[in-house]
Amino acid sequence: MIAIEKGCRICEREQAVGDFCSTCAPLARRTFNRRRGRKRDRVVDVPTRAQWHAVLRRAWDGSAGHFRCEISGVRLDVNVPALYPTLDHSAPGASTDGWLVVSAAVNDMKSDLSLDEARKAWRLLASVAEGNRAASADLERHLEALKHFRPRAALQVLATPKGEEVEP
Ligand SMILES: [Zn+2]
User: What residue ranges do the domains of the chain occupy?
Assistant: First the structure.
């Protein structure tokens, strides 16, 4: 068999062995479990293989030679916990599209919020952090009206004293 030299299907660089280069392969081959939670009883949307690969191609920064967080622009790096590439759904429950690859720290900060909700919360929080006390009231109203924060039932589980560890 003759190996035909061709580009990586994600970053298009030529050092691919098979379909992907060594940078993209572990990410491109990642699988997502529909079932989440301790009892695996929470079912979530996951991207198709084609959707996930499209996300990775979009997040690849060819001139820098690495992936970038699609919300913050920071470098994604599997060796740095806060920069670890994670999957995010920009509008949970809204559709099966709208997937983003996002650094783990930014994904945690975003929580269940939609991208629009998160951006507004971050702007207001930044304003509060810079000393604008009036922004607290705006932030409070914004948080009260969130559509995509964890449901009340999940909060009750989290509040259970001596409860077993739960995955938020
Ligand atoms: Zn590649």
Answer: 111-151
